[in-house]
Design brief:
28% of the residues lie in helices and 23% in strands. The protein is built from 4 helices and 7 strands, in the order βαβααβββββα. Strands 1-4-3-5-6-7-2 form a 7-stranded antiparallel β-sheet. It is an alpha+beta fold. It has helices at 13-27, 51-57, 60-69, 126-133; strands spanning 8-10, 46-50, 74-79, 85-88, 101-104, 110-114, 119-124. The protein has one domain (8-140). It is globular.
Amino acid sequence: MVESSFYKRILSAEESNSIWDKLSSRWAITGFCCWYPLSNHKPNDVEAFDDTYFEQEVDTKNLQAILRSRGVETVWEIREFDDNYELELSNFEPHYNGAEGFWCDSNFDWVVYASHESSITIGGWLLPEIQAVWSNWQERLYEF
C-alpha cells in the first residue's frame, strides 16, 4: 500500500515577508493579533465567528470544497511566529495552534484568520459562500 503524501512547503523568509506585505495591505491588517474581531476596524466583506461552532457546523471539508469549487489548489499559511507554508488544499485546516494564523492564496481575494480568542474570521468572496451553506451563521457570530 502506498501512503499518499500532502504537498507542504516551508516558505522562505523572503516569500513570507512578500506574502505578508500583500496580505496585510489588501486586508488592512495591522498585526497578527490586531485584526478583526480583535481590532475595532471591520472591513465590509469580513465576518468573525466562534471557531467551535464553525468547525462543528461548517467543518474543514466543506471549507475545502468551497475553495476547490473556485479553483483554489494551494493555500498560504502565515503564522505569528511559526514557520509559514504553501499547502495543498487538502492539507488546509485553519485553527489557532498557539500562534495567530492567516490563510489565503495568490489572488488575495479571500482570507481566513484564526485568533487566540477562539474566533475565526472569513473575508472576501469566501464569506457569502460560507453563509450560503451555514443556515444559522448569524447565531454564531463571535462576541467578546
